[in-house]
Amino acid sequence: MSLKLLWQLQELDLAIEELELEIENNPLRQEVDSAEEQLGNVEEALSGTEQDLKEQRKKLKRGELDLEAISSEHEALHQRLYSGEVKNIKELEQMEIKLRSVKQKQEELEEELLGLMEAIEEQERRAADLAGQQKEISAELQQRRQRLDEELARLGNDMEKLQEQRKELVSQIEPQYLERYRELSRRFQGQALARVINDICQGCSVFISSAQRGHLYDPRAMVYCESCGRLLIRFSEEEAQLN
Ligand SMILES: [Zn+2]
Fold first, then answer.
1. Which residue, of 35, 183, 199, 239, is most buried by count of CB atoms within 10 Å of its CB?
2. Domains parsed from the chain with CATH numbers
3. Strands 223-224 and 200-201, how do they pair?
4. pTM
């Protein structure tokens, strides 16, 4: 067993960890979340607007019925007043007063209904605008979900390949080395092994002692950094270039 296999395992494990993070915190997921939130807000506004419209239309309907009744009353009064049937001056005066009051009520109601119709039109424009936004954001959300699904499928595929490689690699490593690697890996957050470059441990940047240096040329020797405790590994010039 060469330490090189453990080094490869560490590289693989670090790549797997990075990929896990990429899957978990994928920026495309945030894009989906933000579109979902936007859509939720627009749908809430739209449903509120539609509810308002329903009430305003009901109010308009009632108002129109009231107006019809008042108009009929006005017409009847008007006819009676000018029919010549009523001769009593006092009564005619009363009727004129009543007619004016009904007329005023009618005009006020007409004014109110006009305002209501304008408000309804404005709400209708708002609802149409929101419905347009809803359609747009829905389409965008669908696209984003698709992009995320594709990305996750791609990353999942990469992950499978890495896990496959890892299985293959682990089968070549003796259990006691694996156990050691796991221990150190936990202790050093995945950086169990450290390379030695120019006699410096890359784990802690401290020079290694000359006694240790000699052992490093033995590929089977387990040499630990005296400063940080990581398992040291030294590559030849050619190997270093490959890494
Ligand atoms: Zn060290």
1. 35
2. 15-170 (1.10.287.1490), 175-242 (no CATH)
3. unpaired
4. 0.72
State the distance from the centre of ligand 1 to the C-alpha of 18, rounded, in angstroms: 23
Can you tell me the distance from the alpha carbon of 9 to that of 170, in angstroms, rounded to the nearest whole number?
8
Between CA 116 and CA 220 the distance in angstroms is: 90
d(CA 140, ligand 1 centre) in Å: 51
Cα(230) to centroid(ligand 1), Å: 6
Distance from the alpha carbon of residue 165 to the mean position of ligand 1, in angstroms: 28
**Residue 239 pLDDT exceeds 80:** no
Instruction: Tell me the angle at which helices 3-24 and 175-187 cross, rounded to the nearest 10 degrees.
Output: 50
- Asked if residue 118 has pLDDT above 90, the reply is yes
Task: Kindly report, residue by residue over 36-80, the tens digit of the pLDDT.
Answer: 999 999 999 999 999 999 999 999 999 999 999 999 999 999 999
Q: Which of 216, 187, 182 is nearest to 204 (CA)?
A: 187
Q: In this structure, which residues have their CB less than 5 angstroms from ion ligand 1?
A: 201, 203-204, 225, 227-228
Ligand 1 centroid to Cα of residue 91, in Å, is 115
